[in-house]
Each structure stands twice: as C-alpha cells, then as structure tokens.
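Can you give me the bound-state structure? Components:
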Amino acid sequence: MAEAIVNTELIQPENLVYKRTELLTPNALSYCPGCGHGTAHRIIMEVIEEMGIQSETIGIAPVGCSVLAYDFMNIDMQQAAHGRAPALATAAKRLNPKKYVFTYQGDGDLAAIGTAETIHACNRGENIVIIFINNGIYGMTGGQMAPTTLPGMKSSTSPYGRDVAMMGNPLKITELVAQLPGTLYVTRQAVHTPVAVRKAKKAVRKAFENTKLNKGLSFIEIVSNCNSGWKMTPRKANDWMVENMFPFYPLGDIKVNE
Amino acid sequence: MKELRLMKGNEAFAEAAIRAGADGYFGYPITPQSEVMEYLMAEKPHERTGMIVLQAESEVAAINMVYGGAATGKRVMTSSSSPGISLKQEGISYLCGAELPCLIMNAVRGGPGLGTIQPSQSDYFQSTKGGGHGDYRLLVLAPASVQEMADFARLGFDLAFKYRNPVLVLSDGAIGQMMEKVYLDPQRPRFTDEEIKQNTPWATTGKTPDRERNIITSLALESAKMEQHNIALQAKYRQMEEEEVRYEKIGCDDAEYAFVAYGTSSRICQKAIQLAREQGIKVGLMRPITLFPFPKKIIAQMTSRVKGILVVEMSAGQMVEDVRLAVEGRVKVEHFGRFGGIIPSPVEVVEALKKQIIGG
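Here's the bound-state model for the whole set.
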C-alpha cells in the first residue's frame, strides 16, 4: 500500500488560502462522496459566518438525507417532522422576529409530503429562507421516485422509468411558488462547479439579506445529484444532471422583487 | 384580584391563556372549538401582550408551528376537536420525543370519522394511552366546568414547562360551548427573551459563544441511545404519577356505591347522586381531574368502603378499563355510557346504577 505523501513544508499559515468555516462542525459528513449536500451546507454556513449572525440564526432540518444537518451546522437547529419544516420556521420566526430562520429540505420533504406547508408559508410571505435541494429522488430511503423525478427516469419505485401516464408528472414547485405574492426572491442554482458554487452562494447571501427587508420569503432551489440513488459515479452523475436535470429545471433567477 | 365574567368554556380557555402569558396560538377551525381562535383574533392579544395568533393551513401545520415555537422556549398552544386532534398525533409524538412543552386543548366530539359535532368522551384512549406512535404520555387535565377551562390553561402551561412535555386539556363540546361564571386571574407577563434563555437553556434561541449549539430533535439512530432516551422519558412519566395526580371526591364519606366519571359526565353524576340519595341510595362520585396520571391508588383505596363502582362515560367504555385495573377485581365495576354525541340524563345514570351495580 502506498504511503500518503504530505508535504509539510507547504502547510504553513502564510500559505493558507482557504479553510473550513467554524460554523461547520468537525463531524465527518454522513453524505455519500460526490453528493452536493456538503457543498450546500458549506455555502450556507459561510454566509452566516460572513454576516456575523450565528447567534441570531435558527435552522430547521427535514426528514431525508439531511435529517442530520444539525450534526454538521454549528448553529441552533430544530429537526422537523417530514415535510413540516416551513410550519416550524413560520412559528420560530413569528415568535422571534429578529432572528434569521431557514429551512433546509429535500424534494420529497418539500414537494411531496410537505407541499401544503411549503405553499402556504410562501403564500403568507413568511420572512424566512427556504433552501430546497432537488436531486429528483428519495436518497435516504434508498432511491425511490420523488415528486421531481424526471419522465423516464429510473428509481427503485419506477424501475422501468417514470411513466408519466401512470405515475404523474414531475412537479416544478419552484416555478409554482414564484407565482405566489408572498415570495420575494425565487431562484434555481446548482453546486456542481466552482462557478455554480459562487453563484449559489451569492443567492444564499441575498436570501439571508432579504430576511432583514421583512418583505417576504426567499426560496432557493439547488438542483443537485444523487450518485448513489442514480447508481452512477459522482462524475457521471454530474454529467447526467447537466444533460437531463438542467433542461427540465433551468438554472437562474425566477423572481427577483426588491 | 380576580375578574368575574360570564363566558363560554372555549372563550374562557382563550382568555385565560392570554392572561397566563401565552406567546403564541396556532390553530385551524373545527366545531365545536372554533370560538378559541375567534375569541383570540377578536381580542387582538398582540396589542394586549404581544401574543401571536395565526390561523394555519391545517391541523398538521398548526401542531408543527407549535413545535417550532416551543423549540424556541416560548409558551405556545393549539386547540382542536377530535378529527383535528387525530391529524395532530404525528406532531404530538414528535413534541413528546423532542421533549417540548406546549398546551393542547381537545373539545371532544362524537366519532369515529367525521362523526358528529355533539359532545363525546370517546377520545380517552387516544389522549391517555398515546394517540401517535412510540412510548409516550401526555399529561391530561379533564375540566368539568368553564372555571376549570380557565384554570387549566394556566396550570397546563406551568406543568408543560415543569416536565418539558405537552399538556392536553381534554374538554368536550359541552364544556366548550356552555356558559358559566368564571373568575379570571390577573394578567401574568409574558417571559422576556432574556428570561427564556434563563428558564429554557435547551431552547433554540441562537447559538452564542458561551454555549454549545442547541438541537431539538426526536431522532437517535443508535438504538442504545434511543433506549436511554426512552428510559428517561419513562422516569418523567413516573414522576408525574408521583406528583401530579389530581381528583375530586363528592359524597364519598358514607357512600356504599361510587360513580367514577370525568368532565361532563361527572356533572351529570352530581345530579344523579342527589336523585339516588332521595331514593335512599348512598352513592358518591370520584372525579379524576388528571386522566394521566390516573388516580389509580385513590380508586383502589375506595374498594375497602364501596360495594360497587359505575363508570359513567360518554363513550362505549374506555376509562372503565383503567378503573378495572385499579380495582383489580375487589368490587364490581360496570360501565354505563351513551355515545355518538348523546349526553346521558341523570335519571338514566341512576337507573343504570340500580340495574347494573345494586341489583346486578
């Protein structure tokens, strides 16, 4: 077995160009290698650190792969019942109007079981941030069909591909919430390349800044991969996402109110 | 100085909650308890005390708003009636698992299903045995008057925070809708954010440098941890059984027979006692006020004096099971009930006593 080569001379304070934000705990991520969750966690925590609002922020974790987000995010967090994060966030924010409150939810959580909570929190214009990770599949339970699974896409409960006639259409919930008067900012981003990460981080920053405006809800979809659930290598999963997910879920701002 | 008012039970509950320093109410309309939210909206508690009132999109959302608010250390509440309370069961299980304090009121109506809007007591099992999943208990207070609707709003909040556990006020359509005089406590101030940080150091109030982050969750993937969590929960429920049993005895000193009844049924039994005693039948009433913890020791002690017990419930027989467990066969225990929204008359109750206990 080859020894790992570590050039200790290079690891010096003056050479430091990047480090993990203190708002991520040292716990090893429970996500599969190649998954976008880790990057999404990082940019949110970096924004909270840069804004200096750690003591003013309450995060809400969903049910799904990111159920354990509180193991990694070094902020006060609540873990919600499946789909109910926007309801928790509604009360947490209304009862603590000076706090920054955000939810972090997957597609099954936000766009299937929690559709009512999502739409009504958006429509009431709660002054919260919703981060929506859309990878088109139920990751944690082992790759079942999600509300956002593409037509023809295989999953463990659509093993021959999603048959729209039988299983219904994928739900573009982000376009849907953009129609509602209560949303202030609705955007779709990704975290698969450095450029995409920088854009996504800008969007997260804007969303948290919006909380201060008290004018409505900010909704950020991050189209992401699930290499384990899609049964692909991480590289192949990202390529597949670009070729198949992005045409159906195009990136960019959908609604920007001031 | 207490204030005397004439109010509906639902209104008294709402007014008393404001005066108990509640921070938030989250509800969804359902008969026969919609007066709670209607009263709160009309009262503008945000102007009176800063209390938030929000009509949610569903009972499911409402109970999860309660979870989100309770997790920040606030005094939060919801109310509903039977079908709506069924919808809240998932949230209630999570609240118990995450050990969050809150106040819940159920103005019970007849079931199953959509049932009827008339009063019933058919949610006893759901309330006292755990209506959602997992091994948990609610602390259950059963008011028998408009006065107790008011008193239990405040007591409920205090017990919820003492135990970090939801408290259920198990009312019914009759108690909620009827008007009686009620003495209301003076306004108790809401806790300030600083007081909340002191009182509830576990709450998600924002991580400050002087402490680790606070996490509110009911999840423990490692079964060894989950077992320890369950053991701690059970210890809390045993403490409730030691410290929180509440009951009332009426006419039991010379009684040869006893009614056991709570809520509306106990009011009917009080009249039945009068009627029975006019006929020379010495009967008393044991009224459990806490349904969990259940006053089982007191009921067991009664068996050395009384020859038989009639459990009167507006259900097909639910609390009677707990009475039988307490009595352990020492004396005869029978159930008399009307259900589906029918309230028994005192005459019916006396006839049932004569037929099922004295003559049976």
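A couple of observations. The CA atoms of residues 88 and 231 of chain A lie 34 Å apart. Residues 194-213 of chain A form the longest helix (20 residues).
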